[in-house]
Description:
disordered N terminus, 7 helices, 7 strands, 5-stranded mixed beta barrel, disordered C terminus
Amino acid sequence: MGSTVRHLRMPAFRGYASFRSREAYLAIKPAVNYKRHSIQTSITGAGFTSIVDSAPQLVRSGRRHGPGIIVLALIPITAFALGTWQVFRLGWKTELIARFEERLSRPPLPLPPIVNPEAVKDFDYRKVYTTGHLRHNKEMLIGPRIHDGNDGYLVVTPLERGDHGSTVLVNRGWIPRRKKAQGSRVEGLPRGRVTVEGLLRKPWKKNILTPDNQPQSGQFYFPDVQQMAQLSGSDAIWIEETMSTKNPSLAHTPNVCRLMFSTGPDLLLAYDREAKGIPIGRPAEVNLRNNHTQYIFTCCYNHYAVDGCQENTLGGSAESST
């Protein structure tokens, strides 16, 4: 049968010119068409209809788009609005960091005997120093806190200044978890009158993911200045003690030079403090993150990317409707 089919296909392509007479071609043509229809039916099925033989389907023009197009149109508008807002946020954060760095460049001020908590925001990141007695019996540990990959706590101790001075809260710095008990860090519990130098900071704001403190069981997860002040009988004044390099060669240098070389803790000194359980204070620097430039580029990219997709979608819809 295969040889017969191949023989019968040749006239369909070559025409009746290959035959001796037109009558011979007309006589065999019905058999060729029937065989071709049989082969096509066996391959595609009896219900197959070619797209060429199908009637054209008319598309109604002027059809309204669904809610998906509306949502797609709102995305670039929202991205543009967020990008514009981030531009203003970038300017505000840059100015804020510059203001704090200017305050850090000034020499430390003596802390007044009485401090108004409402005025602290105007002196945020201002270097201050004060003298008093650390009340270790009212010490509070905030944790867990990570320092160089190690778990530990922040040590908060009330400083009783006396001489008609108020009691303030001092964040002395970080200690490792193994030094949680006061008996294991005797050298980190100075007695008598001490002088504390640090940064005056406004009260912290709690993160929504941070659990609530449990002062009745001594569990503190974030520095709630108001709560800790009421618990220890102190004023709501928060000082973060700074640790500078103890270099004797800098003892008689001008204040500007001392501040220049005392912006961060010495590595060996930090290791020695960690081993003895002495709190490691923070460096005297601004630790505010400024990622608004990255947010601006992200919003602009989303705006133009979705705008391009929307243009292609609407353009394709317009072509299909014409």
